[in-house]
Amino acid sequence: MNERLSGTQDLMARAGGGDEPARQELLDRYRDFLRRMVEVRLDRRLAARVDASDVVQETLVEASRRLDDYLRERPLPFFGWLRQLAGERMIDMHRRHVVSQRRSVMREHRDSEPVDASADELVRRLLAGDTSPSQHVIRKERHEQLRKALGALTDRDREIVLMRHLEHLSTAEIAGALEISESAVKSRLLRALLRMRQQMDDMV
User: Which of 8, 182, 185, 196 would be a feasible disulfide site paired with 149, CB 3.0-4.6 Å?
Assistant: First the structure.
């Protein structure tokens, strides 16, 4: 990802200068990373009706439309900006397709919890091996504890945890995506996990 980041900076400079092929390459180079993000975060109620590739394509179309403004202002790292746009598309998809539920995901999880399906998916995976019927109540309690602990993290720390343990990005890939050092990623990840552990201990 560090080499990718270096290439991204070069492409952004060329795209900002009016180089159309560079503009298209810039938008395409993170397509697979975005698809991985969407696949694991998309609300499972939508999975049968919405293809992750369609969400990614809509994201890149929107990114193309707003790219000039981004290149002038650069409010956050490029991949972070694409991820934000993808998140907006998923929320929009939810509002369009889950017509039977009038409450949006954002309302359902307004208490400092993620607005997409990522928290539930990560918790489900972490507890996947715990299948004993006799442990059902305990498993349900642990699910809620993990979910609340994840939701209590700052947005940045929660994003790093999800990128590492849900999307399975490497430390180097996360560092490149967020444009911070690998040591900073490791430090923030460790602090976040310790904070989650403390949060869960406090619930006992």
Answer: 196
